[in-house]
Amino acid sequence: MPTNAVLRGWAMATVGELAAVLDRLWPVAWAEPWDNVGLLVGDHADSVQRCLCALDADTTTVADAVAAGAQMLLTHHPLPFRPLRRLTAEDPTGRGLLLAARSRVAIYAAHTNFDVHPEGVNRALADALGLRAAVPLRITGREALYKLVVFVPAGHEDAVRDALADAGAGHLGRYSHCTFAAPGTGTFRPLSGARPFVGHVGTTTRQSELRLEALVTERCRGDAVQAMLRAHPYEEVAYDLVRLENDGPARGLGLVGDLARARRLSTLAAFVGRRLRAPATRLVGDPARIVRRVAVCGGAGAELAAPARAAGAEVLITADVRYHEAREAEASGLALIDPGHQATEAPAVPVLAAGLQRAAAAAGCPVEVLVQPPRQDVWRAVGGRGGAG
Within a 10 A sphere around the Cβ of 280, how many other Cβ atoms? Predict the structure, then answer.
């Protein structure tokens, strides 16, 4: 049975409301063209009281959602992944989809759009392995930046600043609550029917105000504006939202960073296997080699070998490495550690759950979020005569 309830609410959100929340959180437009992401199964009008988060979407996971009383399934891997020509119970994909439809369990997938997200799959993997100052290996895009300017009566700027920060505005690198305030005088004349915070109807009022400025990203601008309006004392709020030419936060495939201290390659491979609970870990390279700069890519990421070398990485940790890819890496001097597909992506499942928890709460869509316990890896380790040396 799923465990780890992270949010409980009394009212129920709808599938459509939660899908909109997730669309903003992990934009569908960030996914690869061949991918299948977003709301894949479900009725927008159906109510959702409980959501199960998991790595895979298949018959087993759908059955777990049904057993847990969940009305929605949020996964990394999509169901269906490839276009269907028929929908029958004889096909494994068909069985899962039919079970979801009959049980009214909606399915939402965040796949490659979650891979490239700055706080997605690869960030979870890098954090699990203790990489420092990790940056994208292959940049696929940059988020648009905006400047939000709002005029706040003196004495109320802290409440508005905190509301903006809680909504994701005013974040700059490793700093939050970044704003600039300049004093000035605002004037206004309340008209008939107005209910002014200060002043009187028909009388021009002069009010000491602060011009409060904060950076907001494209993803959080809507939430930031709404949070600012809720925290602002005025009945009518004067604010500007201006698109900037500045480069916003980068997103992309993989990350590259540094270990806290250099390690032997064999020691690092053993640590990776233990930390990610991999049934078996494959290694390419001299086990005695000392490495510190590490690239990671959750799932199948051998295609990032060249960017990893260009970024100065001595080893790439990824999964599903094929024979010729391994030989090419060996010839180029890049070491490889392959703990398996599931092992490299499992750390991201709690991130999915936490992201939904925060975003749903901020949007006023209460839902109980469960995390499926890690399933046994599809691969089994058996005896052999090989070794890391």
Answer: 15
Tokens of residue 25, six digits: 């959180």
∠ CA 30-343-331, rounded to 5°: 85
Same domain, 79 and 171: no
pLDDT tens per residue across span 295-304 = 999 999 999 9
Place of tokens 């959100």: 13
pLDDT at 173: 79
Closest C-alpha to 163, from 223, 253, 74, 81: 223
* 106 pLDDT above the threshold of 70: yes
8 A C-beta contact, residue 14 and residue 30: no
Bond into 339 cis (ω within 30):
no
How does DSSP classify residue 249? -
Element (H, E) at 338: strand 335-338
Residue 111's pLDDT is what?
97
- Domain carrying residue 296: 121-140+252-339
Tokens of 286: 């001299």
Return the HEC string of 63-109: HHHHHCCCCEEEECCCCCCCCCCCCCCCCHHHHHHHHHHHCCCEEEE
Would residue 7 count as lying in a domain? Answer: no
Q: How many domains does the chain have?
A: 3
